[in-house]
Amino acid sequence: MGASVLLFLQAMLVGLAIAAPVGPIAVLAIQRTLQQGLAIGLATGLGAAVADGLYGAVGAFGAQALVRALQDWQAPLALASAALLAALAWRIWHQPLPGPAAPAGAGVLHVARWSAAFASSLALTLANPATVVSFVAVFALLAAASAMPASPLLMLAGVFTGSALWWLLLAAVVARLRRHLDLRWRRRIQRASALLLAGFALAALAAVLLAPAGAAV
User: Is the pTM of this model over 0.90?
Assistant: First the structure.
């Protein structure tokens, strides 16, 4: 296997590892897929994948000044994340379920809804600048272990591909399960999703309020 292919695959695994843990974006992707169909769930995941790629670019190109600036802004960004999560939790809790005959989504998808799903997950992921610290460390290890001069663009392509594949898989599985859930179960999942997002919002707020003065969140 060529060194460039190996580096790409390693970076793809990094993207998968960062995307896969259950967090607010996963909850959003599952809820939106159940509520509005595969395309909206995938848009939610792709917003996170693009944010991972942007932070990955910071790590791959070694922009240390930007890394330090992002770390300095962790508290305000965490507060913004908490506010966004709380707003999303409120909206999901009060959102009416579509009727049984509502379309699953892709063919009649309105561009505005797709864009809103993408933008909200992009903003939510970007509000977690701690991610870039992970990318800096991981990309440094990949560059050191690579048998070829490290290519930031190749590593970025791998990270984005791995992250996007995860969100595609998750949305596809949930869309398939969607067919077997009646409105009662979808309502339960909707309420559980809202409560989980509210919990993530409280955790982000607590991390800021309880952090020692001058410490990173």
Answer: no
